[in-house]
Structure formats: C-alpha cells, structure tokens
Amino acid sequence: MGVQIERTELPGIGTRYDVMTNSGRRIGVVSRRDGDSELAIFEQDDPDACRSQIHLSQEEAAALADVLGASMLIGQLTGSDSADVDLQTEKFVLPAKSTFVGGVLGDTKARTKTGVSIVAISHNGTVQPSPTPDAPIHAGDTLIAVGTRQGLDALGRLLAQTD
Description:
The chain has two domains: 4-56, no CATH class; 62-159, Regulator of K+ conductance, C-terminal domain (Alpha-Beta Plaits), CATH 3.30.70.1450. The protein is 23% helix and 35% strand. It contains three helices and nine strands, in the order βββββαβαβββα. The chain is α+β, with helices and mostly antiparallel strands. The protein has helices at 58-78, 110-114, 149-159, and strands at residues 4-10, 14-20, 26-32, 37-42, 50-56, 88-93, 117-123, 126-129, 142-147. A five-stranded antiparallel beta sheet has the order 1-2-3-4-5. Strands 6-9-7-8 form a four-stranded antiparallel beta sheet. Strand 2 and strand 3 form a beta hairpin. The protein is elongated, with a radius of gyration of 19 Å.
C-alpha cells in the first residue's frame, strides 16, 4: 500500500503536508516560507484535532530529515530493516588542512580504501547528490557517506590526512 500524502497551500505561510499512516494516524508538517517548520500529531479518534505541535528551526528540521532519510536509505539499500545490518550514514566536514582540499572526490579513492560510498557533497548550502569522481571538494565541504562503522571510521581518518 502506498503512503497517502495531502498537500495544502497556506497563503502567506507556506505549505502543509499531511501524511496518513497505515494505522490511520495523521501527521502534519507545515513548511513555512521563512524556512522553519511545524510538526503536528493529530488525535487518533479525530484526525482533525491536533494533539501536539512542535516548532522546528531550519537546523532541527534538517536534522530530523537526515535521521528519517538515513533510515529509509539504509532500508532501501539493504532490502531489510536497518537494525539487521551494519550500515550507517555519517557526515564529514573536510578539514582545511586535508590533503584532498582543492582536489576532486576521486582523489580520495574513498570507496576503494574504505568500502564507504560518498552519496552527497554539501558546498556553501548547495547539496550535490550522487557526486561523480570529478566533483570538486573544498575545505569545509560536508561529505555524506554510507558504510559500515569500521569503514566510516577509516574514511574519517583518510579525510583528515595532511600529507
């Protein structure tokens, strides 16, 4: 069964998305024009009555999306519950003194050396999903990676290299 999502434009405010769960619960997300969000949980007996509402800053909403997205991605990659596998996601900020600053992603040979896949690069607020080996990397860029704990630890050490 597909997930039912209702979208409602809120003039002057933003957009509201309502997700209906398989158990009949309604969860609402208001994406505000100012970048902040509101998360609402509705009563089970009355899906129009809001039980609880939580204000989320841009950073909090992004963190929650990361957590939910990471668990979804891992489940899709493995075809199973993420608790059954040793895959994790992690963000790495490329240190200013890293050997790889000013080069391209392929210079790291991250997948070959660590078994980890870098699935996105964030540079100056712009995210590049599925970067190619020729994607430039700069000091302060955030590299989002998927792999085992051991592989992610190795990637952290690799990116921190200064010679």
